[in-house]
Amino acid sequence: MGGFAGCHHDAIAQLEAGGHAKLICTCDPQPENFAKEQETWRLAPRGVGIFHDYRAMLEACHRGLDLLVIPTPINLHAEMHAAATALGLPVYLEKPPTLDHTELEQMIVADARARKSSLVGFNFIIEKPRLALKQRLLAGEFGAVQGATLSALWPRPASYFSRNNWAGRLMMEGCVVLDSCLGNAMAHFVHNLLFWTGESELFSWAQLAAVRAELYRAHAIEGADTFFVEADTTAGVTMRFALSHACAGNGTHLEMVLCEKAVIRYAVGSQIEVRWNDGRVEKITLEPFDPLIENHLDYYAYLRGENPRPATSLVDSRPFVALNNLAHISSGRITPIPSELVTALRDPKEQKDYLHVASMTAAHENFLVRGVWPSATGWGRAPGEVATPADLPRFRDVVRAMAGQP
Q1: For residue range 273-301, what is the model confidence (pLDDT) as tens digits?
Q2: Which is the CATH superfamily of the domain at 4-123?
Q3: Claim: this prediction has a pTM higher than 0.85
Q4: Mean pLDDT of 79-101
Q5: β 91-94/145-153 pair status
Q6: Above 90 in pLDDT, residue 197?
């Protein structure tokens, strides 16, 4: 009931009030810790069954369910998805579905048992302006896609990495977690960039040919909090991703698609700007968009047969999962950001502690615009190797070594 699951409860309560859905049951190992939330959501008056264990919940309730929503920690996704699909239930599965390419393939097989395909909750794919721009890209209006970049700086206090037992972890109990800004916190935007560079049809994502990466950390965590990743697609498009939690102040994120005739700048929740080479500037204001409400409604329409497909299926998630795996293989290790670049800051309003790398914005610009890696500017490591899909069998060994496990 806590974390992002609480956001789903808020959304479903609104959908139920509008006659779009009916919550039958919910589960939390410690529901007594969420008495206030249960009162706010009016679970008892709505007749919602509350269980301590999802297996008991499914056993008791599955015959009356149309779908199961799984907004749980990454390492629980596969087993919960398997339990639901074994009963024929479609699943609204929060992103990321998993961050282990082998586990993803097992989930794809399991998904075939359900009445309908599962949805992976990458929230922004169904934005109408995004779909309209992708149609224009496919029609050739902007010329050939030549590249794409994502820059995202999201401040995270030290407490963010201690909020649960899996935050910032590479592995837990022998299972891959790979929680990071690339794989989890900013996963929506990473998936968006793969969507922009998918060329076969509207709902298509880039297919990866090669990945190069440098992974860093400023926080005392097992995984990385800062990623510099370059990926080539099989269509010859180069994408660059620069993401970090090692910052303070206001967060920023910007998706850019570099085309033959124009540059598209897409800031989720703000605006779209198309800068044409001939000097024209086209601005598109984004209307208010509630990602959970809209994604629930879109998935319900698919389950009713009104939409031909879910916005993102498990199969569609293959490039995203492979990108995360290949980035770790390419980097080979997670390098501490030089201590002289890191400043500890206390936010007096929030009463929270942040680690801030003042040169991070410049490092992003150097990499995204000029292709200059941090390793070339004194960040204390050699460049990452080129990793291709043929290297994926090495993934688990690389991650175990990163986590200091045999």
Answers
A1: 999 999 999 999 999 999 999 999 999 99
A2: NAD(P)-binding Rossmann-like Domain (3.40.50.720)
A3: yes
A4: 98
A5: unpaired
A6: yes
* Cβ(272)–Cβ(133) below 8 Å: yes
Distance of CA 254 to the CA centre of its chain: 15
Rounded to 10°, the helix 291-303/4-17 angle is 60
172 sits in which H/E element: strand 171-172
169, 182, 187, 188: which is closest to 211 by C-alpha? 182
Task: Kindly report the CATH number that applies to the domain delimited by 125-286+314-402.
Answer: 3.30.360.10
Residues ≥6 apart with Cβ < 8 Å to 286: 127, 129, 268, 269, 270, 271, 272
Show the CA angle centred on residue 124, arms to residues 358 and 306, nearest 5°: 175
CA distances from 157 to 167, 224, 248 (A): 12, 15, 8
Question: For the chain, which residues make up each domain, given as ranges?
Answer: 4-123, 125-286+314-402
**Which pair of structure tokens corresponds to residue 124?**
């922004």
Q: Distance between CA 177 and CA 75 in Å, rounded?
A: 6
Half-sphere exposure of 388 (CA within 13 A, CB side): 3
SS3 state of residue 85: helix
